[in-house]
């Protein structure tokens, strides 16, 4: 928004207004990128504290903490008078993201019945996509409010934070978390409540057995470095890295910038971002339906093909028709929007939700919060890198940036084909026996590092 740029990033606004601006470079500003990416750097650091909080206090209080930081970030951002207030507000948001992204997927995986675990966990990503859509709608609506429309946009982020805060007071703690912290009676009661039946002995015994084994591990982060922990750790981290190198956040963060680059005006570019947000939401429903029927691998591989074709096609159009000044003609600009939507569509039913589902279900209970913390922090690190670098990369690489991301998509497809096991329908607490010890590559790592009871603390 121009009012926002004038107040906090005047040099960017001047560059944007320049008569012969370079289409690819008009938003290339490190401070502007830091405003976006500081959230993810804060989330990276916070995710390790969130792991400790999840283990020591439970998933429910950790979600409560996340919502509190969200609300504080919204208040400070909306009231910002200087750039430092704006960035501190983003950092508070980032701490909330770190705590929320650690606790919520774990919470969902632990309360879901195994046959619906994929669909339930993807509800997390579904509501993320709904949040992105609402953000686009809010920005579109407030762009005509001068000079403080941006304050309304940033302040309204406190509304879902308040809903999350209230919800975190109402939800039931997960049975795994209660049993893990020695409260077996409350864990059994929670399991009965969640399942809606009285006969839960088999599942309760399975969870308690896993938790008893977990107690033998005094330092789960140290346990993660052992050979037998490498398969889920490598998968959990690489899935997050690949999720970012699809280029999705570059497109979603900067959709208005991208569409302005190819010739849309300010309002039209914001509206185009709303369109991509709508596609994102609707396509996530496909994943909810398909993930427990088709499995994780098929969705990921199909999406790699679709995303690769879209990225290469966008690069071809921009290389052939968009110069450093001027715009695309209306027809080609519309084609770019369609290709972006097709790209977002395939990501939304694959790497988006499965990037959170797979790491939340593959770690054994003794390293679950620690392992998921590594996954979350990897996601935040590479989100930070992409967010901090994208506008500069767009300036220097121009349309070749889409070929850069398409090359990564090829690597991702090969990784899934040869190294990612299928986890559909496998109970979380028997993942080692049913998945890792059966996989032709990862079974070589599963020597258990000796008897569990002899693990050094």
Notes on the structure:
It comes from Camellia lanceoleosa. Keywords: Sugar transport, Transport. This is Sugar transport protein 8. There is one protein chain. It contains 22 helices and no strands. The protein has 457 residues and is an all-alpha fold. It has a single domain, classed as Growth Hormone, Chain: A, CATH 1.20.1250.20. Helix 3 packs antiparallel against helix 20 and helix 5 crosses helix 20. The relative contact order is 0.14.
Secondary structure elements and pairings:
Blueprint: H1 2-8, H2 10-17, H3 30-57, H4 59-78, H5 83-111, H6 117-142, H7 149-155, H8 158-170, H9 175-180, H10 184-195, H11 201-215, H12 220-223, H13 230-245, H14 248-253, H15 255-261, H16 266-294, H17 296-321, H18 330-348, H19 351-362, H20 368-397, H21 400-419, H22 431-434
Helix pairs in contact: 1-2, 3-4, 3-5, 3-20, 4-5, 4-7, 4-8, 5-6, 5-20, 6-7, 6-16, 6-19, 13-19, 13-20, 15-16, 16-17, 16-18, 17-18, 17-21, 19-20
Protein name: Sugar transport protein 8
Keywords: Sugar transport, Transport
């Amino acid at each position: 928004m121009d009012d926002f740029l004038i107040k906090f990033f005047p040099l960017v606004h001047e560059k944007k207004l320049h008569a012969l601006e370079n289409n690819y470079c008009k938003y290339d500003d490190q401070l502007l990128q830091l405003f976006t990416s500081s959230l993810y750097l804060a989330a990276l650091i916070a995710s390790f504290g969130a792991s400790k909080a999840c283990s020591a206090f439970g998933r429910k209080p950790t979600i409560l903490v996340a919502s509190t930081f969200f609300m504080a970030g919204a208040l400070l951002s909306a009231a910002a008078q200087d750039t430092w207030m704006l960035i501190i507000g983003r950092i508070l948001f980032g701490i909330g993201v770190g705590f929320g992204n650690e606790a919520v997927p774990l919470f969902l995986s632990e309360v879901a019945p195994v046959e619906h675990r994929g669909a339930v966990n993807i509800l997390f990503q579904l509501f993320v996509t709904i949040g992105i859509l609402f953000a686009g709608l809010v920005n579109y609506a407030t762009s005509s409010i001068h000079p403080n429309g941006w304050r309304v946009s940033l302040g309204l982020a406190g509304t879902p934070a308040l809903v999350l805060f209230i919800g975190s007071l109402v939800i039931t703690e997960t049975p795994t978390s209660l049993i893990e912290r020695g409260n077996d009676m409350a864990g059994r009661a929670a399991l009965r409540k969640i399942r809606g039946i009285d006969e839960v002995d088999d599942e309760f015994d399975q969870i308690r057995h896993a938790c008893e084994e977990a107690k033998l591990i005094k330092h789960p982060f140290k346990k993660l470095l052992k050979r037998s922990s490498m398969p889920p750790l490598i998968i959990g981290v690489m899935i997050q890295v690949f999720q970012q190198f699809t280029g999705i956040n570059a497109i979603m963060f900067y959709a208005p910038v991208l569409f302005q680059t190819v010739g849309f005006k300010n309002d039209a570019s914001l509206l185009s971002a709303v369109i991509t947000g709508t596609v994102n939401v609707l396509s996530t429903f496909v994943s909810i339906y398909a993930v427990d029927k088709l499995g994780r691998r098929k969705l990921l591989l199909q999406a790699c093909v679709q995303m690769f074709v879209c990225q290469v096609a966008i690069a071809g159009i921009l290389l052939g028709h968009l110069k450093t000044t001027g715009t695309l003609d209306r027809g080609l600009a519309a084609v770019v929007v369609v290709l972006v939507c097709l790209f977002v569509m395939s990501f939304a039913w694959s790497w988006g939700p499965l990037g959170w589902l797979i790491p939340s279900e593959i770690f054994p209970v003794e390293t679950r919060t620690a392992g998921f913390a590594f996954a979350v922090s990897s996601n935040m690190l590479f989100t930070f890198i992409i967010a901090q670098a994208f506008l500069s990369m767009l300036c220097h690489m121009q349309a070749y940036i889409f070929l850069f991301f398409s090359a990564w998509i090829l690597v991702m497809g090969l990784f899934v084909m040869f190294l990612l096991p299928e986890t559909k329908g496998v109970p979380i607490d028997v993942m080692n026996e049913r998945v890792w010890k059966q996989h032709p590559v990862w079974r070589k790592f599963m020597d258990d590092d000796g008897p569990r009871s002899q693990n050094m603390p």
